[in-house]
Amino acid sequence: MDDRRQDIDWLIELLRATTTVRNPNINLETELYYELRLSGDCIDDVIAAASRRCGLALDIDTRRHSPGEPGDWFDWLFKAPSRRRYESLTVSKLLTAMLRSQS
Asked: Are 24 and 13 in contact (CB under 8 A)?
């Protein structure tokens, strides 16, 4: 199995374990905030785990991609999926940052 496939599988399993969304269908185009509802400490923990895996700190400003902690609770509960307030951060973009840091 090549390293890229291992990284994809590892990242998808990490996201599946982190999200509170039931039975998420996670693929390369899945958005961490808008689909998996990852924000605040949860998205920071995912970035930190990805950084440890590739051995370098990933330069991703999570505040551009999701609300902080405790965040905009009203938006998170009622408006976030329909209101594009944050930049998209997909599994593919996170994987690209990981692979770029390894080269």
From this structure: no
Model pLDDT for residues 53-86, shown as the tens digit of each residue: 988 889 898 888 888 765 455 555 655 454 568 8
Stated pTM of the model:
0.81
Q: Which residues of 26-60 are buried (b: 16+ CB within 10 A; e: fewer)?
A: beeebbbbbbbbbbbebbbebbeebbebbeeebeb
Q: Which two tokens stand for residue 22?
A: 């039931």
Alpha carbon distances (Å) from 5 to 26, 28, 62: 14, 12, 25
> How far is Cα 17 from Cα 29, in angstroms, rounded to an integer?
18
